[in-house]
Amino acid sequence: MPCMSKPFLIDFPKIGASDIGFISVGEIAATIPFEVKRVFWTYHTPESIVRGRHAHHQTEQVLVAVTGRIVIVTELRNGDIQTFVLERPDQGVYIPPYCWHTMQYSHTAVQLALASTLYEATDYIRDYTEFRRL
């Protein structure tokens, strides 16, 4: 696994064939670098909406575009910015703690999110100025 303090792409196995279909598998330690405690998905988001706009103190996430396209922009506290375009259901992006991230979706996009923690409002850093100060 790459350095866990920076966002990175994850290629999930793509098993099958075009005549029968495919399955992709995410396994803890093999492809997902944390124990999954929460799963949620986002869908029918208008293309003009930018979601996210936050970081987490503790939560790690893997985001997958199950269908459609998702553009994810990440920023670390040191100012390092990366852009990821997810358009394949066999690829995801790892989001570490203290990583500001935004997502913009095609209207048909369905984003699957795997999170390392249960939802806790105090884990969110929603103010960009506070994020930069930390």
UniProtKB/TrEMBL annotation:
* Pfam families on file: FdtA
Instruction: Read off the SUPFAM superfamilies from this record.
Output: RmlC-like cupins
* Domain Sugar 3,4-ketoisomerase QdtA cupin stretches: 9-133
**The protein's name in its UniProt record:** FdtA/QdtA family cupin domain-containing protein
Q: Which organism is it from?
A: Hymenobacter taeanensis
- Organism lineage: Bacteria, Pseudomonadati, Bacteroidota, Cytophagia, Cytophagales
